């Protein structure tokens, strides 16, 4: 999709309508609700204001997920473990002139609902692929199948 291929451009409106219908049927969103603000692609960098401002909420969600889904103890999923596992990346951010607008590197794709993060997809965007590293979500929203939704997205 970046740079947009002819197939991407030709199917964009149809794909968007499927996405919009999904949001309305599954999430009960009103027709005008699906917006870019529901999913935020945030570079994994403590120098990035969005990453810094959402770090505590994201780390807390990670701990909640790990304890509920994987039965980790609180000491297994504290901020240090979260940082080591999902924030320390060997990739260096790069903004190539012919690359995607967001650049290349490691990102947290945050899924927001009603002003709070309900899922985070940890992804690496590279010149020829996107790699899904990990996904964690609020177990209270497991009925939404956020892992499936994230994979499809």
UniProtKB/TrEMBL annotation:
It comes from the Eukaryota. GO terms for cellular component: cytoplasm. InterPro entries: N-end_Aminoacyl_Trfase, N-end_Aminoacyl_Trfase_C. Keywords: Transferase. GO terms for molecular function: arginyl-tRNA--protein transferase activity. It holds the Pfam family ATE_C. Residues 59-153 form the N-end rule aminoacyl transferase C-terminal domain. This is ATE1 transferase. The lineage of its organism: Eukaryota, Metazoa, Chordata, Craniata, Vertebrata. The gene is Ate1.
């Amino acid at each position: 999709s970046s740079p947009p291929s002819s197939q991407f451009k030709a199917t964009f409106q149809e794909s968007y309508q499927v996405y919009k219908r999904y949001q309305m049927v599954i999430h009960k969103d009103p027709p005008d609700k699906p917006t870019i603000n529901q999913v935020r692609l945030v570079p994994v960098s403590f120098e990035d204001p969005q990453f810094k401002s959402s770090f505590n909420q994201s780390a807390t969600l990670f701990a909640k997920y790990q304890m509920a889904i994987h039965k980790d103890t609180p000491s297994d999923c504290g901020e240090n473990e979260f940082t080591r596992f999902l924030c320390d990346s060997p990739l260096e951010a790069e903004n190539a002139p012919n690359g995607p607008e967001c650049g290349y590197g490691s990102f947290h794709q945050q899924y927001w609902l009603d002003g709070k993060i309900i899922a985070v997809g940890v992804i690496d965007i590279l010149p020829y692929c996107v790699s899904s590293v990990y996904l964690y979500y609020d177990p209270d929203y497991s009925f939404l199948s956020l892992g499936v939704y994230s994979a499809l997205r």
